[in-house]
Amino acid sequence: MTTVDEAAKALIGLRPAAVEPLAGGDISGASRLRFPDGFTCIAKSGPLIEREARMLGAIRKSGAPAPEVMATGDNWLFLQDIGPSFPFDEAAWLAIADALVPLSRVSSDRLYGWAEDYGFHHVKVPNAYSASWVDFWRENRLLCHVFDLDPELARRVAALADKLGDIIPDQPPVSLVHGDLWGGNIVWDGVTAWLIDPCAYHGDREVDAAAMTVFDSPPERLFDRLGLTPGWRKRLPVYRLWMWLVHIRLFGPSYRAAAERDLKRLGF
């Protein structure tokens, strides 16, 4: 793979004067490139970068705020620099709710899924379309992990999958979901909440509501503004569990207790 300097020259016609690694990036690192004329952009690299670019494009097409894709090639992605993120305040959370509205207006005749799979390092994110949301979540977000979990945790996840139709709806309204919407994947610039680093697909928008409760504690006004379907609080542990299982496989057993708490909340 080419260096970031070589890729910048080939794809956007400029060589950076400075490369600043950005904080975070447990899955894929990013850097801010500064050019002699003062222009800046963000560079990311990875084997699935073209798929990420297509997801960002779909989010932008919906009207939701996401950085513009400037160029892709040779496993490099160059993005509009939307600047650093400020600490979240009440206004930030309300802006996040507003940012999700355009996604809720995106439907799909194929219903639940995405045209291609995704992944985080060695953890595959299967996205095969299904006419049933229950089947999609069971196969693509729960059972796909059980062979990589310890036997007891795998048993509990499989038991939940078997009863999933009693917990989540089979035909919820279809939305474009970000899919990995924790605080680190939102850039708050004081005016706009920008959506970055998606794991997008067509699904139930409660997925994004749940993701925001994994590492953050949003105020009630955010959920009021989203106007979710009654009973949404009882379903959040189902959607959070997927993120805990991914984290267990990526980072180890330190996330097991969180997965077990949500399984217990669901009665498994």
How does this structure look, described?
The chain is an alpha+beta fold. The chain folds into 2 domains: about 80 residues, Phosphorylase Kinase, domain 1; about 180 residues, Aminoglycoside 3'-phosphotransferase, Chain: A, domain 2 (Alpha-Beta Complex). The chain is about 40% helix and about 15% strand. It contains 9 helices and 11 strands. The strands form 4 sheets. It has a 5-stranded antiparallel beta sheet with strand order 1-2-3-5-4, with helices on both faces. A two-stranded antiparallel ribbon has the order 6-7. A two-stranded antiparallel ribbon has the order 8-11. Helix 3 runs parallel beside helix 7, helix 4 runs antiparallel to helix 5 and helix 8 packs antiparallel against helix 9. The longest helix has 20 residues. The protein is globular. The N and C termini lie far apart (about 45 Å). Pfam families: Fructosamin_kin. Keywords: Kinase, Transferase. InterPro entries: Fructo-/Ketosamine-3-kinase, Kinase-like_dom_sf. GO terms for molecular function: kinase activity. Belongs to the fructosamine kinase family.
